[in-house]
Predict the 3D structure of the following.
Amino acid sequence: MSLFSDDALAASRRPVRASALGSFAGGALVRRSLAALAFAASSLIAFGAGAQEATSSSSSEIGESDETRSYAVGVDIHRPKRKDPSEYRSDQYVAVELRFGPYKPNVDDDFSGATKPYEDIFGDDTRYQIGIEVDWQALRIPHFGSLGPGIGYGYTRSTAKAPITSTGEPSAEDTSLWIMPMYAVAVLRVDVLARDFRIPLVPYAKGGLAYALWHSGSEGDTDEADGVEGEGSETGYHLAAGLMFQFNVLHEQGALDMDNSTGINAAYAFGEYFVSDVNSFGTGMQVGANSWVVGIAFEY
Amino acid sequence: MLSLPLLSKKAPGRVAAALRRAALQGLGGALGALVLVAPTPAEAQSTNANAKVELQKTAVRFDREVERDDAQFPFWISRQDCLDETKIFFSPKVTGVQNAQRGSLEVWVGSNVDCTDVNQRTGTNARCSKVAEDRVPTDATLQPIEVSSRDVARAINAPLGTDAEGRGRLVDCDAELEANLTFYLMIVDPGGNMEGTPAKWEDTQIDLVGPPPPNEIEAGIGENKLILEWEVDESDERQDTDSWNFYCDIATNPEETMQGEGGSIGVGVGGTLGVAGAAGAAGSGVGIGEGGAASISDDPTCAPTTLVVGKVPSGDMRCGSAQGLATRNGRAQPLENFQRYAVGISAVDKVGNPGVLSKVACETPEPVTTFFEAYHDAGGEGGGGFCNLGGAPASGAFSTVLAASAAWLVRRRRKRA
């Protein structure tokens, strides 16, 4: 803001009505004195207003006349517009998710209900998976969201007592199946609500290829049947949709401080439903699942 | 001048004079020789009072077929060392010796006793024993002195001061012997007194005793194996248990044995396996002592054929092991399906001493159905190894897509650069 704004100068150049005293004093001398006094007063007030704005805005510069108003006697004081806090955030490239949820592989789906080897051995007890996903937000679509690739990794294990072949009664020997589901997906996050409208919800969708390792055995041994090893790898596809809740809106200044100190732009809690079909397109064991996960996510 | 008939002045003539001269010369020569051989007065009074015996840790070595690592206390004498008569080699450095002919370099051992005290080495109250002896070295280099672990065990079990009966007591390496040892390497004069400064070695203990056995043994069915679980009495649990050994034997049924046709039943005493009487056709010679059945197994129908509960078992019958003080389960394998076994457990301490055998548990291994067997038997097509990507066309498409994605990413990064 100019110390001597146009309005202040214009105001100072406006003819000042001479008071009775000025008239009584008579003459040009009095008029000029009063004019100078008015200009000085208006300038002083304008300077004070400019100093206040300079302390409230770190990026304000002298000369931005569209964001400020002049101050002069008789003119309304207008509070300068505050900067959008999001403009102080660091650049954002990556999202990381920590994931947890139930996982029941659809092994029995391959048998059309005629037999259910997974359920017969492991029963209906719920097993869980833990996982992690890293997404690169390669493309930012202004006022919409981000799009980019992501990779995910998970782990789940089912264990039960193997039944005695002759009687079906549970033996003392364990049998287990562990699965490592992985995927490479395209991730579309729609964060316009959070960014532009301060609504802390970010819906997203994912889709891509899946790959999983699995192993059946116990205590380091690998099961075998008719010479076939009880372990393998499968391919397939993975689809997911979810909703994230952004914590930044709960404490914006705290979020900015976190960004300044750690580089984390935003933190979320999320819930997601996924569908995965991972049986090497019908030629392997179906180790995919249809389930949900919850977790926390961070954007850097 | 000695007065001898040969030297008498009455001997006639020149012969007598010649003989006299020869005798005198011979006597003089003999006296001279004695002077040369005999110590000088100074030498006769010199001792090894300034001698010093030093022993570094690197100068002690145990000669074992199988070395023990640092976690297994390699300087301790174990039961196996006693059985093998493992040799301990000390290579001390000795300096300041003034009279190597005087006395000997001796190795004494005691437990919580100062063997530099002559009263601990001699007399009826002596608690130290000599386990090795060698000449006093003339320089700082010395051949290693060899000590037998079995001799050390005998010495500690029946120290020198013990009466003849005690010294003759047999140490069969199954003695319950645990003690801190101190070896003294010292120069001892002919009178049995120590000279100079001895070396002490305190890093060796003797431990011939294994930990107590576990209890509440349970055996579960597995395929070609038995799954074992056990508990440990907290009051007996020792911190030096390092692992558990499992021992398998063909099981017998004492109740069936006792019902042999036409035979009488032998009854032992004290709860151990007694000697059966003349059992009938069904008898196998296994009798049950009074109260013995309960001390063998919690199952009255379960007993081993050869294993002896309460004794350190033979390694030939070992059928598995488990590591860790806190471990409470393990596998006994490989076993035959449909054969009933009696299985017992002994705890093993850090130096490898096995404890006595626990009570036994009996069970019969049987085939089980694992998940993959159930899946495969139902017609499942998966499996065959991690490298077996099911379906060549599908795997090819997957690989193609992955490769294309990677290529796109690389191209994009190059554009940015």
Q: What stands out?
A: The radius of gyration of chain B is 37 Å. Residues 1-8, 260-293, 390-397 of chain B have pLDDT under 50 and may be disordered. Chain B touches chain A at residues 219-223, 225-227, 331, 366-391, 393-395, 398, 401-402, 405, 409, 412 (CB under 8 Å). Residues 307 and 314 of chain B are 8 Å apart (CA to CA).
